User: What shape does this take?
Amino acid sequence: MNATFKHFDLKIFNPDFGSNLTDLIIDLDYLRKKLLEGTTHPQIFFQLKHIFHMLESIGSARIEGNHTTIAEYIETKLDQSNIENENILEILNSENAMQFIDDNISKTSINRAFVTDLHKIVVNNLTREGSKNPGEYRKANIHVIGY
Assistant: This one.
C-alpha cells in the first residue's frame, strides 16, 4: 500500500489587532528577546535542566511502549551497562536529540536538514523502533499493532 499525498493550501491567520491572540503574540515575541536569568546558580539550573530532559525522554519512550523505569535508566547511565539495550538506547537518543536542539537552535533555522538530523539522532542504532532510512521521509504507511 503506497501513501498518497493530498495537497492543502496553507492560509496565514491574521488576527485582529485588538484580539487576545495578538496580545499573546506580542508577549511571546518580547519573551523571546529577554535574557534568561534568575536567582538559581547556573550549575544547579543546568543540572535540573538535564534531569528534566532525562525525565522527558523516559516519558516520551513510555508513550511508545518502552517500560524502562527511571531507576533502571539512571543505573544504566551510572555504570554504562546495558547501553546495547534498545529500550535504553531509545531514551538516550531522545536525550541526545534535545542536546542537539540546545546546541544548534540559536545558530540555525528549523528546516528540512535540521529535522532530518534530529530524526537520525532519535533512531540511531535502533532496530525495533528505528528506521530503515534515517533522516528520510517514509515512503510507505505504517500501522500501530498490538492494541
Summary: Helices lie at 20-33, 42-63, 70-79, 86-104, 112-122. The radius of gyration is 20 Å. DSSP finds five helices and no strands in the chain.
